[in-house]
Design a protein that fits this description.
Layout lengths: L2 H5 L10 H17 L2 E2 L10 E2 L2 H13 L1 E10 L9 E9 L2 E5 L8 H6 L4 E4 L2 H10 L6 E4 H7 L7 H9 L1 E2 L16 H12 L1 H15 L2 H13 L22 H21 L3 H4 L2 H10 L4 H5 L7 H5 L1 H13 L21 H4 L1 H20 L4 H4 L2 H9 L7 H10 L4 H20 L4
Parallel strand pairs: 1-8, 2-5, 3-6, 6-7
Antiparallel strand pairs: 3-4, 4-5
Helix pairs in contact: 2-7, 6-9, 7-9, 11-13, 11-16, 18-20, 18-22, 21-22
Length: 437
């Protein structure tokens, strides 16, 4: 080799075409899925359910002595019980194995929380489980959400079973996801299902972490995880009865009063009996009671919505609620729903503010194109509510800086602002310059 040849630096490899990189990643996932095998049993077998203080103390010691992230999952009894409390909590950590904890028998997990204070907790769809975990004292300080990671990476299916199959090549049995987890004792096949939900969660986390690094999206994910933990619990909704399904059919204030009185009566019964409100009385029945306003037991029982045995069981409760609403003076009737804080429904924009409607269409087009470029759903690149609010009330002077500031004030993360502020500002300025606003 000559001195000249030796002195020449090696040529840098050409950057891979983004589209080719995406196609390569899709092919890799398809190859993994094609070779997927069923995962039938936990590696260490089904652990016993922890139901007492002594067992919980053993779990605390074992998990404190373990290392690495902690996989966490919770099973609720949605559709069966009142509220969203956890009826089983599953954990897994390297060096500690898997633990299944009954949070009804062990309602205070603050000792476990303290032992895991420095650990990263791995959850799938964390927003679903964090509230019920907080109720028993488990509050992650660091989080990795495998579902959200999958969204940022553009995985077409982000359910836990799909992610485990497409990323790790194992098939999880998902037949018990909607069972009544308040059942005691829990059947063995349910416990097997629950243990398998955390069996590979840490391996999934590690694989997604590496994929995020390869895609240059790790920092984006970390900002999203931190935002989840920093978001305070939502306050109770005012007038929750207004969210009854089918409310669009209710027209008069007297009908609104019936919905309110029956809804409140149902909620009291559901809370007392620890039942899902829909099992006590379906929303469709509440709306039918409001529209028909029965005066007698016979009229009430003649309604199609009253054919359900659960609804008929408390017929006197519903009739009293309808009668209370019927007898309310006019000044005590609820008013129609008032406009909430923020923009009106977007289907009204073209009539109320055509300029805002044009801004919204432009902003949505920009966000959709950027999301496609970065291979993720548009709602994960920028939350739809943020797009709506920006379009409805943009900065007085449009520029990348002012649009970025507005996005931050609306809750957008730094990575989102870096990606979308300049393209959004340029598009809105072009719209303004063309005289279309």
């Amino acid at each position: 080799m000559s001195e000249t040849e030796a002195a020449e630096p090696a040529a840098e490899p050409a950057a891979e075409n983004p589209q080719i990189a995406v196609e390569r990643e899709i092919a890799r996932r398809e190859a993994i899925r094609a070779d997927a095998v069923p995962l039938l049993d936990p590696r260490e077998g089904i652990p016993p359910v922890i139901c007492d203080a002594a067992g919980l103390e053993r779990v605390i010691r074992a998990f404190a002595a373990g290392h690495g992230p902690v996989a966490v999952d919770a099973e609720r009894a949605s559709g069966y019980r009142y509220g969203q409390r956890a009826y089983l909590i599953q954990l897994r950590r390297q060096g500690a194995g898997t633990a299944l904890i009954d949070p009804i028998a062990c309602p205070d997990l603050s000792g476990l929380d303290a032992a895991l204070a420095d650990a990263e907790m791995v959850l799938h769809a964390a927003n679903q489980d964090l509230p019920c975990l907080a109720e028993v004292g488990l509050r992650p300080r660091r989080l990795f959400d495998t579902e959200l990671a999958g969204r940022l990476l553009g995985h077409p299916k982000v359910g836990l079973g799909s992610m485990v199959e497409n990323v790790l090549g194992f098939v999880l049995e998902k037949g018990h996801s909607a069972v009544d987890w308040s059942t005691r004792p829990l059947p063995e096949d349910w416990l097997r299902y629950a243990a398998l939900d955390v069996e590979l969660l840490i391996e999934l986390r590690d694989a997604l972490h590496a994929e995020l690094e390869r895609a240059g999206k790790l920092q984006w994910a970390l900002e999203e995880f931190a935002a989840i933990l920093a978001t305070p619990p939502k306050p109770p909704r005012p007038d929750p009865w207004r969210r009854t399904s089918g409310m669009h059919r209710v027209r008069t204030r007297r009908q609104l009063a019936i919905v309110r009185e029956v809804w409140l009566a149902r909620d009291r019964l559901a809370r007392e009996r620890d039942l899902s409100p829909g099992r006590v009385l379906p929303d469709a029945a509440i709306v039918q009671l409001a529209l028909e306003a029965p005066r007698t037991p016979a009229e009430l029982l003649a309604l199609p919505a009253m054919r359900n045995r659960g609804a008929r069981r408390h017929q006197s409760v519903w009739l009293r609620a309808v009668t209370r609403a019927r007898n309310l003076p006019e000044d005590q009737l609820p008013v129609p729903s008032q406009p909430g804080e923020g923009p009106p429904p977007t289907h009204r924009w073209a009539e109320r503010d055509p300029q805002a409607a044009k801004r919204l269409a432009t902003a949505r087009t920009v966000v959709a194109a950027l999301a496609d470029e970065h291979t993720m759903p548009a709602e994960n690149l920028l939350q739809p509510d943020v797009v709506r609010r920006l379009a409805w009330s943009p900065p007085a002077e449009l520029s990348p800086a002012t649009v970025g500031g507005a996005l931050r004030a609306l809750g957008a993360r730094d990575w989102q602002v870096r990606l979308v502020a300049t393209p959004l500002a340029k598009a809105l300025i072009r719209l303004e310059t063309k005289g279309e606003l």
